[in-house]
Amino acid sequence: MEFTTKLELSEVIIIQWVIILLIILLTILLTKNLRKIPDKKQSAIELLVGFINDTVDDTMGPGTKKFIPYIGTLGIFILLMNLTGLVGIEPPTKDYSVTLALALISFLVIQGYAIKKNGLLKYLKGYVEPFSFLLPINIMERIMLPISLSLRLFGNMMAAAIIVEFVYSALSKIFLGFPLVIPIPLHMYFDIFDGGIQTVIFVMLTMINIKIVAEH
Question: Care to name a GO molecular-function term for this sequence (predicted)?
């Protein structure tokens, strides 16, 4: 009796791999030959890094600089996925499996940091504070975090993709040239503005929950 395994790579996975490789390549190229006196390229990089550092420090407080690489990478990765609509590719974030995976990673980071900072016993004690009968509610609150994070990002990006697709379909039936010009404002709003806002919300909620859960 023979068993065969068929490995299939979905378009969503491939797009994410391409974005990951793009981030790695840009990181290598942009951080190559750094100088004490920065040129325009290095100045732009330092502004971005400084912005991420200040955001993490202002939101999470002192002693949380260890999260800068994670928060920065998370924000850049989600933003690039949300912007793929600009090049005619549906955002991977309209797939719930993608947003759920991102939310679960943040959930593990949040709970892991809380355990590391407070110790396992104090972490578990937080589930019965301020009263022991709140245990089910506190557990549900923790469980709902990755669900709310993932559904918020997924719902907004899915809605945006459906609206843009509907507009393209409707315009193509009226006149073939319309989809080349009219949808530009839609892409400006849904891909750039809304995609950027959803990135900020996801990252900010991650940072806030890291801080709150660790202090619980």
Answer: proton-transporting ATP synthase activity, rotational mechanism
Q: How far apart are CA 121 and CA 138, in angstroms?
A: 16
138: exposed, middle or buried (Cβ count in 10 Å: 0-12, 13-18, 19+): middle
Q: Which residues of 182-212 are buried (b: 16+ CB within 10 A; e: fewer)?
A: eeeeebeebbeebbeebbeebbebbbebbbe
The position carrying tokens 């379909």 is 169
Exposed (0-12), middle (13-18) or buried (19+): which is 86, by Cβ within 10 Å?
middle
Q: For 36, phi and psi rounded to 5 degrees?
A: -70, -35
Instruction: Look up residue 195 and give its two tokens.
Output: 């995609």
- Is 154 inside a domain boundary? yes
Domain span at residue 205?
Answer: 11-32+39-215
The helix (H) or strand (E) run that includes residue 57 is helix 40-60
Q: What is the pTM of this model?
A: 0.85
Instruction: Tell me whether residue 3 is in a domain.
Output: no
Q: How many residues does the chain have?
A: 216
- Please check the confidence at residue 181 and state whether its pLDDT lies above 90: no
Residue 171 domain flag: yes
Q: What is the mean pLDDT of the segment spanning 76-80? A: 94
Domain-embedded: residue 71: yes
Question: Cα angle vertex 199, ends 171, 73, to 5°?
Answer: 125
What integer is the mean pLDDT of 60-87?
90
